[in-house]
Please model this.
Amino acid sequence: MNQPEFRLDGRLEADTHFLLDAPLCRIGLMDDSRFPWLILVPRVPNVREWPDLSTPDQLQLQAEINAAARALQQAFPHGQKLNIAALGNVVPQLHIHVILRHDGDAAWPAPVWNSGQRQPYDDAEAADVLDLLNTALLKNFSD
Amino acid sequence: MNQPEFRLDGRLEADTHFLLDAPLCRIGLMDDSRFPWLILVPRVPNVREWPDLSTPDQLQLQAEINAAARALQQAFPHGQKLNIAALGNVVPQLHIHVILRHDGDAAWPAPVWNSGQRQPYDDAEAADVLDLLNTALLKNFSD
Model:
């Protein structure tokens, strides 16, 4: 029997800019310039819930969340608070939000979900932020 | 020098019913009868961010999130989706929300935060739910 393949959910693909494939997760930048916001999707087929990941995958996910969080903090030094969440009420494919918040951002202190209109990056902004985050992520993944 | 002591933030204490002290976390039931909603607070002083926990504490937190999630799923078999989140924009003491959601609950499919008025349990309901969850948590912590 063939192994089922990992396929990124179409809505996650449409909403993110690809950043990198870490050992477990595909990491993307949410296309919302209001918040430094990463999405980590474990490349494990048919998993909806974090506790359903195997123990080794949970360990690796924790390491990748740490690296993603550090990368955001280094790339955006005015950030004050991490928000880390797996919700998935709309898109059931397991994905973890890692978002850096600060007092005065577009939703503060409310959560980012259902807080006004998403503001897509323009091309130049997206290129700059992707470059900044790629550098920071690679640094944290090589540590 | 004395070790700083763990003290549960007053707002978390006011908003929850105490359930149990697991090896790492104090676990409480959020006093909102609209959702089966646990709050896990690592008993580590002065930690605001999940990635700032030590590696052993992160491992233990993961195990306790798994146990809390399983307990909710067993106690409320109509649940369909876990929401797991560390936000802390208002209460900075690190605390993890583990919530069981279902299609048609009071906020579905939106996140629970900022979704209408909290509905505190009445005394009889609280006693029943605490009893149900204590049994389920103890079972999952002894596995």
